[in-house]
Amino acid sequence: MPAVGELLNSGTARLRAAGSDSARLDAELLLGLAIGADRTTLIAHSDAPVGADAAAAYERGLVRREAGEPVAYIRGLKEFYGLAFSVDSRGLIPRPETELLVAEAEAEVAWRLVSAPRPAGTPKLRVVDVGTGSGAIAIALAATLRKRRMLPEVSLLAVDSSADALHLARENAVAHGVADEIEVVEADLLPVGPAGAAFDLVLANLPYIPSAEVDRLPVAASFEPRAALDGGPDGLVVIRRLLVLLPDALTSTGTALVEIGFDQGPAIETAVAALPGRWSCRVQPDLTGRPRVARVERSTNPVRPAGVR
Ligand SMILES: C[S@@+](CC[C@H](N)C(=O)[O-])C[C@H]1O[C@@H](n2cnc3c(N)ncnc32)[C@H](O)[C@@H]1O
Fold first, then answer.
1. Cys-Cys link to 169, which of 57, 119, 135, 188 (CB 3.0-4.6 A)?
2. Does the beta carbon of 131 lie inside 6 Å of ligand 1?
3. Is the four-CA dihedral 70, 238, 293, 194 of positive or negative sign?
4. What is the arithmetic mean of pLDDT over 233-247?
5. Is the CB of 143 under 6 A from ligand 1?
6. Which atom number of ligand 1 is nearest to the Cα of residue 129?
7. Is any atom of ligand 1 closer than 6 Å to the C-beta of 205?
8. Domain boundary at 67, 98, 115, which?
């Protein structure tokens, strides 16, 4: 029987040859999946023998990864904001850089709830996640607000134009025990009617990659829905359509937090400057220092004090 270390070494070599730039990590995750063990256990027991069934399951995972399929789809899950999300070809795999948007949303909700008195009967804060995909943003926010005992004061809506993605989002909401806290709606950007009434917070990670670049992404991206990635000729077609809706979609003190590509800050600022009335747009960097989240709101909005989280 082959040993753990032996299978990891041969798998790593195969995945490197197939073009993976995270070959060792991929092999560890795939062998861990096959054996039912975490990576730490594999590394600590590199001499342990691997049975035939587990070795065969590992081989099937390697073959799929060699064909370019993302490890997250092979495993069927991806960690995001400290939670495990089910993922498959119905929705985008949540990216670590999107955690900034959730952290900002969490800070914004917390500040809004504590910065002004909220006598009994005060309406809930209305928050919408536009282009929810797997539900990552809405569900991570709901889960963290529940821990902070703030969830009862917030109403959450998750919207996507893809019915498939919404099925996945619902499954994830059930898995994380927040299905009753998040209304899930199929719509183009925002629903019309009462469900679309003005929001205190609009959160959006919509497609923002220029069409020509989508074709040049690593093969793993070709397994994800194109509608989750392709933002049109300059990447900003869908986001611009959302910006135009903001004057009606936001309350008078509402804020939109919109994820963008690292080089799209100036284009977003230009689009916001063209909105009717006076608007501000500030772009925040992610942990790597790259511009990532555009904060769009009326210029009269109070600025959240630094350090409030
Ligand atoms: C970049 S993915 C983000 C998914 C998820 N929010 C995340 O951060 O992992 C963009 C999502 O927006 C959805 N989408 C694209 N165009 C849309 C539109 N016009 N209205 C609503 N959703 C849209 C796609 O179906 C996809 O699920």
1. 135
2. yes
3. negative
4. 97
5. no
6. 6
7. yes
8. 67
**207 Cα to the center of ligand 1, angstroms:** 6
Burial of 175 (C-beta count, 10 Å sphere; 0-12/13-18/19+): middle
- pLDDT confidence of residue 194: 79
Question: What domain count does the chain have?
Answer: 2
**What's the CATH code of the domain at 205?**
3.40.50.150
Q: Is the pTM of this model over 0.90?
A: yes
Q: Is any ligand 1 atom within 6 A of the Cβ of residue 8?
A: no
Asked whether residue 309 is domain-assigned, the answer is no
Q: What pLDDT sits at residue 304?
A: 78
Ligand 1 lined by 242 (C-beta under 6 Å): no
227 lines ligand 1 (CB under 6 A): yes
225 and 91 in a single domain? The answer is yes
Please tell me the predicted confidence (pLDDT) of residue 262: 94
CA of 98 to the centre of ligand 1 (A): 13
Tell me the residue range of the domain where 246 lies: 78-298
Report the pLDDT averaged over residues 10-24: 96
| Mean of the per-residue pLDDT values of the chain | 95
Distance CA 23, CA 15 (A): 5
**165 C-beta closer than 6 A to ligand 1:** yes
DSSP-derived letter for residue 233 is T
Q: Both 273 and 125 in a single domain?
A: yes
What is residue 193's predicted lDDT score, i.e. its pLDDT? 80
DSSP classification of residue 95: P
DSSP secondary structure, 114-163, as one string: HSS---TTPPPEEEEEES-TTTHHHHHHHHHHHHTT-GGGEEEEEEES-H
Task: Say if 304 falls within a structural domain.
Answer: no
Task: Report whether residue 172 contacts ligand 1, using a CB cutoff of 6 Å.
Answer: no
Atom of ligand 1 nearest to the CA of 131: 12
Please indicate, yes or no, whether residues 55 and 96 belong to a single structural domain of this protein: no
pLDDT at 118: 83
What is Dmax (Cα atoms) for the chain? 71
